Amino acid sequence: MNALRGQLELWRLHLAVIVLGAIAELIGIQKISFGIGAILLLPLLYAFVMSAVLNPNVVPALGKFIRQKEVKAASPLIVIAIMPFIAKFGTTIGPAIETIIEAGPALLLQELGNLGTIVLAFPLAVWGLKMGREAIGATFSIAREPNLAIIADRYTLKSPEGTGVMGVYVIGTLFGTFIFAILASLFASSDLFDPRALAMACGIGSGSMMAACTGALTEVVPTMKDEILALAGASNLLTYATGLYAGLFIALPIVEKLYNATAGKNDLANASKKEA
């Protein structure tokens, strides 16, 4: 009863979700064609933008309707809302198990792509943005929930490394769906990559990003919808299963050694100057 009463007190939040969801669906899928491909704007993106505008931390004037109470309550509800979507992926994996087995080596090897954050992001963070130890947490992974757990256990989230991983996590949560939906539709419509490869790339361990990515792919290649959903779901599960260990035993030690060998020397030099 207390739980029900608590949800009734959050009627503003539930009303906003219903209204914004309806508006987003009425707008529908919009296609912007240009050059080598096209960008698909999905209802998920419209709902995200409108929800962000209603956030009192973004537009304080709207705090009279959506209060901080609703903002705090909305975060855990994301997990509940995404559960039916994850369940749907589970039902598509079984019938397509032969396709997944055939793509087995490709699925396993593409998990090595998670280490690409080190190659691409670490040099930019350390030498371009002049980040301190925050660079370790920010660049050793794509900063999803399992990666947060690794940093929280090793350094705590209040440490510089924790600040780095939390920063990337928040940015990924806010803009990841935008970026994934746009990139997926662009690459799929340009015929630069096989749709199955793009489907596997959708599974990075984030339900919302995978939803945006597969949604865009299935709109561009509707005839491969079941295969795309199956491969993306399998890839996502593998990322959760292997990504944790890859981050803990491979990526994090590599980033720590790289940081200590490069920026770490500068930190020690600066510390010595301050003491002097």
Automatic annotation (TrEMBL):
<feature type="transmembrane region" description="Helical">
    <location>
        <begin position="36"/>
        <end position="54"/>
    </location>
</feature>
<feature type="transmembrane region" description="Helical">
    <location>
        <begin position="12"/>
        <end position="29"/>
    </location>
</feature>
<protein>
    <submittedName>
        <fullName>DUF3100 domain-containing protein</fullName>
    </submittedName>
</protein>
<keyword id="KW-0472">Membrane</keyword>
<feature type="transmembrane region" description="Helical">
    <location>
        <begin position="166"/>
        <end position="188"/>
    </location>
</feature>
<keyword id="KW-0812">Transmembrane</keyword>
<feature type="transmembrane region" description="Helical">
    <location>
        <begin position="197"/>
        <end position="217"/>
    </location>
</feature>
<feature type="transmembrane region" description="Helical">
    <location>
        <begin position="106"/>
        <end position="129"/>
    </location>
</feature>
<feature type="transmembrane region" description="Helical">
    <location>
        <begin position="237"/>
        <end position="255"/>
    </location>
</feature>
<dbReference type="InterPro" id="IPR021450">
    <property type="entry name" value="DUF3100"/>
</dbReference>
<keyword id="KW-1133">Transmembrane helix</keyword>
<feature type="transmembrane region" description="Helical">
    <location>
        <begin position="74"/>
        <end position="94"/>
    </location>
</feature>
<dbReference type="Pfam" id="PF11299">
    <property type="entry name" value="DUF3100"/>
</dbReference>
